[in-house]
């Protein structure tokens, strides 16, 4: 009897702790601030059997970027570890729109979390076509994320051009009733300007940001290590860069932000939330710790309790109360 009481007490505490992490990302109600980053999780099904991994710890999954036709991607090697991060040049290798509809849609409904469709492509028309082909199935998804960070045919990402970005966002907005997320390019003269353009073109949420372009060299061969020569840098190495971008955009727009770039622990997550993110994306950390989401969930609850104690509060404040609470010096 006593142990039953103890068990139900613990379950109650866990439920209370989970309540602290609930938040709204625009119109989306998330049970956790954690959004799985596109391209680092496949379609989620591989994780169904990973020990200790729970979809309960996840607010949403952004699917691997899909293009109108299947793509083989770039030549190998496509991934290389670097100091504090990794470079990837996957090149949008994916199964294409038709296979996503036929093979993945039914399974995705059973994962018990929000599913975010992510569309990519080399040219603006490719992105719009992929979105168009999937628009009939939009009720299967909680939101669509438009990745304007893919390098265009001339090597520059679509998202570096504000006019082209506005055209893509406006076109896709017309096709979708569900929330529209735009995933911005980090290496741009003014991310604030393009963020404003996206907001005015109808974006509901912004993901800030994507990988930074980079290179690694094999000094004996005197050749780049990646088959594609260059790749996108992700992981802890980019965290301070992404953090500054998130804060700058937070001050300039009124739509919510998903932070993406090098988040590996609860402290990282809190930094981004205080800087202005409403949700945090986990990507590279999943490559070396399949249980990173559980670790972050527990760490966030511990932080909220600790912070309440330090401030003499009877109850911890919910995570959403911390969004954008950064106080600048001077
Ligand atoms: C292997 C790999 C594949 C990725 N593929 C995509 C993709 O298809 N679409 C996209 O929008 N972002 C893609 N990304 C970018 C991630 O979603 C994320 O924005 C980026 O890695 C930064 O976060 P992180 O440091 O937590 O990994 C990819 C990243 C990696 C490492």
Describe this structure in words.
This protein has 330 residues and is α/β, with parallel strands linked by helices. It has one domain (2-322): TIM Barrel. It has nine helices and 16 strands. It has an eight-stranded parallel beta barrel with strand order 3-4-7-8-9-10-15-16, surrounded by six helices. It has a four-stranded antiparallel sheet with strand order 5-6-14-11, with no helix packed on it. The protein has a two-stranded antiparallel ribbon with strand order 1-2. Flavin mononucleotide binds next to loops. Residues 37-40, 64-65, 88, 90, 92, 118, 120, 147, 183, 210-211, 234-235, 238, 260-263, 282-284 line the site of flavin mononucleotide (FMN).
List keywords for this structure.
alpha/beta; 330 residues; binds flavin mononucleotide; eight-stranded parallel β-barrel
Order of strands, widest sheet: 3-4-7-8-9-10-15-16
Classification by helices and strands = alpha/beta
CATH class: Alpha Beta
Q: Helix coverage percent of residues? A: 25-40%
**For the residues shown, what is the average pLDDT?**
94
Radius of gyration: 20 Å
Unreliable runs, pLDDT <50, ≥5 residues? Answer: none
Largest sheet: 8 strands, parallel, barrel
CATH homologous superfamily identity: Aldolase class I
* Annotation, overall tally of beta strands: 16
Q: In the CATH hierarchy, what is the architecture at level 2?
A: Alpha-Beta Barrel
Strand content: 15-25%
